[in-house]
From TrEMBL:
This is Nitrite reductase. GO terms for molecular function: 4 iron, 4 sulfur cluster binding; metal ion binding; oxidoreductase activity. Residues 415-427 have a biased composition (Low complexity). Keywords: 4Fe-4S, Heme, Iron, Iron-sulfur, Metal-binding, Oxidoreductase. Residues 415-457 are annotated as: Disordered. Pfam families: NIR_SIR_ferr. It comes from Pseudofrankia asymbiotica. The keyword Transferase does not apply. Residues 22-83 form the Nitrite/Sulfite reductase ferredoxin-like domain. The keyword Transport does not apply.
């Protein structure tokens, strides 16, 4: 629960940019993370034109960002985003925040493999994407269209989040404000009200949450009068949203929340339940270069399941899916044997054991004026050394054989994060050189630990759940255990 927030919502969009230290920052919403390969390649080319280090950035909500946009080219940016079909509503462009399970229908987990349907392998849809994935995509598109068609909902903050979970709990873990997950007997469970509805009622129920939130937040009262809109998300309300949830139930019985069936987020190439192939690539630090985007634009295919033969599809090529974990899913992969090697040559990660899959970072210097360190460069140096946390130093030089992020001895800890994930009192490390952590102060990290590097105390882009946070301060990095709700970056 957070106090009211009297200042204006500064979330950027494609029309109103954030003024960062390295120029304008544009955020382009991709409902459900869905984007055509050609569209992604076009955005990467545009980003590259803004400077030699230009790249498309993947955010923790499955959206895209472009940095360093010159003032003279912002109208051009808006025009190109609109031409690519990514700006269906100028009034609603910052509120189209919809996340959906990116692996739906591709792994045998979630929708089609348990709750809401008979167990077993999900059948394949007409475009080669198993029906479960197509079903979630249809819900995403229906929700986006209905959201943009409601003038009142243009007043939502750019932080309000809708979620569509496939039953694995991956999207529920992102703490959306209004979300749905499959329930038994073909229904969907919708939160925060905690009611069960059928397919046709999901979109309306989610939008009802948003309208009720606007009234509770003071943006509009029951008579339609505008208020100060000082709350951005349901959890910001004084009671954390309890009264809102009770009001949304409106006498309907509370339905039991379906237990999630957690599933892995694969990296690399795998065989789909219907016999086709899918792939996911991790994008180091979320920076997608033009060569990588160009490759991804060429590897998607619409195929007849089980035959490998191309066919026309009413959907066209299945869209790529940008995940909230800085990766890209290719739902229908062309030429699986060659994909991994081609992807690696462009800097994409296809090895699930890569340290890059466990390391994230905010923009840091020079892109952010608040940052106290170039966290991306420091994180890259750590990963090159086989570490997740700052490189250990002895008298200012890298320490041989002093791993910070490798496999630990039993019970070892890093900055207060022991192997069991619970913080050790007084075990954080701070006040050290920005280039690294003193070896005597820095025990190994627990195996599999995730780490997020932040240039300042705001910790933008931090992931949900337990992780090691590495926060730059005036005297160096503070390394400590953390567990927080995510913050988009």
């Amino acid at each position: 629960m957070s106090p009211g927030r009297p200042r204006a919502d500064r979330c950027p969009g494609a029309l109103v940019l954030h003024e960062a230290a390295d120029g304008g920052l544009a955020r382009i919403r991709l409902p459900g993370g869905l984007v055509g390969g050609g569209v992604l390649a076009a955005l990467a080319a545009l980003a590259e034109s803004f400077g030699e280090h230009g790249a498309v950035e993947l955010t923790s909500r499955g959206n895209l960002q472009l940095r360093g946009v010159p003032t003279s080219r912002r109208a051009e940016l808006a025009d190109q985003v609109a031409e690519l079909g990514l700006l269906p509503s100028a009034t609603h462009e910052r509120v189209r925040n919809i996340v959906a399970s990116p692996f739906a229908g591709l792994t045998g987990a979630g929708v089609g493999a348990g709750a809401g349907s008979s167990a077993g392998t999900p059948p394949a849809g007409g475009d080669g994407v198993p029906t479960a994935g197509a079903r979630l995509e249809d819900l995403v598109r229906g929700l986006d269209e209905a959201l943009c068609a409601d003038p009142e909902l243009a007043e939502l903050s750019g932080r309000f989040l809708f979620g569509l979970d496939d039953g694995t709990g991956d999207i529920a873990a992102l703490a959306p404000d209004a979300w749905a997950a499959p329930a038994p007997e073909g229904h969907w469970w919708v939160g925060p009200a905690g009611v069960a509805v059928d397919d046709s009622g999901v979109v309306g129920e989610l939008l009802a949450v948003a309208r009720a939130f606007l009234r509770a937040a003071g943006t509009r009262d029951a008579a339609g009068t505008r208020g100060d809109g000082s709350f951005w998300r349901v959890r910001d309300l004084p009671d954390g949203g309890a009264e809102l949830a009770a009001g949304l139930r409106a006498g309907r019985p509370a339905a039991p929340r379906p237990a999630p069936r957690p599933a892995a987020h694969p990296v690399g190439v795998w065989r789909r339940p219907d016999g086709g192939h899918a792939a996911a690539v991790h994008v180091p630090l979320g920076r997608l270069t033009r060569p990588a985007a160009d490759l991804l634009a060429t590897v998607v295919t619409a195929t007849r399941p089980g035959t490998g033969q191309a066919q026309a599809s009413p959907r066209g090529e299945p869209p790529l899916r940008i995940t909230p974990w800085r990766s890209v899913v290719v739902p229908c992969l062309k030429d699986p044997p060659s994909f991994a090697a081609r992807a690696r040559r462009t800097g994409l990660v296809t090895d699930p054991a890569s340290i890059w899959t466990r390391v994230t970072a905010c923009a840091g210097r020079p892109g952010c004026a608040s940052a106290l360190a170039d966290v991306r460069a420091d994180a890259a140096r750590a990963v090159a050394a086989g570490l997740v946390a700052p490189v250990a130093l002895i008298d200012g030089a890298p320490a041989d054989g002093a791993p910070v992020g490798g496999a630990p001895a039993d019970g070892a800890s890093v900055g207060g994060v022991p192997a069991d994930g619970a913080p050790a009192d007084g075990a954080s490390v701070g006040g050290v050189p920005a280039g690294g952590i003193r070896a005597r102060d820095m025990p190994p990290a627990p195996t599999g630990a995730r780490a997020h590097w932040s240039g300042c105390g705001r910790r933008c882009g931090r992931p949900p759940g337990p992780h090691v946070e590495i926060v730059a301060g005036p005297a160096g990095y503070l390394v400590r255990a953390a567990g927080a709700e995510p913050k988009e970056s």
